[in-house]
């Protein structure tokens, strides 16, 4: 099992950042921590505040590099998926229940459009960066990059042309969610799929109008745009991903993919509410934890 390196001085402040964590739940489909945080600030001690300021600057630089235009492979997957075999990766991190440090990072690659699992990688990790709402990517992205590099170096034929992340892309207070962060650093098309709506203060909210829009989703593939009430920004779409889904998923582009194409790919990959690459990564990483993490060993 691979573990993270010795904590840096910045990482040692993690113990004081005891905000919501992404704990493993017994019921598949429950949202975790940063996936549904509010826009309000939590009280930070000086060390965490300094880290937050540093990360805000990094997010601003990443945002400048985000492209919401379709990559060539994305165009091919949308326009003529049967012309070739494509690969879509699903990434997720599952935590040991009651533990916000020990976790399993997972990458599952599915062929597209037939959605057969062709590659899997599960790694036990330790997340020692502090938890600060709105900056989850700084805890998790390095491990996701390692998983991507593993498949690229050792099983090149299954390197995903698109990555789906359990989280958000531009649906984020500063427009740089985990899918943006990962996509820009890898320079790979990336999108976020969230099970709950990410509240953005004074802009995106689960209000009465939003609930009425959800009720209007009748058939698989039905959508409505997620438009900020004050900013006017379209952050993504709510999607009824399959006929049996009673709740939508929230799709937002991360990098090198448009809102429409991101939503279309999620729909085409959804046998159930959650698209298959992410669903398999979630379920299998939880099982990996059950088998491989016992009594803290």
Describe the structure in your own words.
There is one protein chain. The chain is of the alpha+beta class and 297 residues long. It has seven helices and eight strands, in the order H-H-E-E-E-H-E-H-E-H-E-E-E-H-H. The chain is globular and about 50 Å long. The protein starts with 45 loop residues before the first helix and ends in a 5-residue tail after the last helix.
Topology, please?
Elements lengths: L45 H18 L8 H8 L6 E10 L6 E11 L4 E10 L10 H18 L7 E5 L11 H9 L3 E5 L13 H8 L7 E5 L6 E6 L9 E7 L3 H10 L7 H17 L5
Parallel strand pairs: 1-4, 4-5
Antiparallel strand pairs: 1-2, 2-3, 5-8, 6-7, 7-8
Helix pairs in contact: 3-4
Question: Keywords, please?
Answer:
single chain, 297 residues, alpha+beta, eight-stranded mixed beta sheet, 8 strands, 20% strand, disordered N terminus
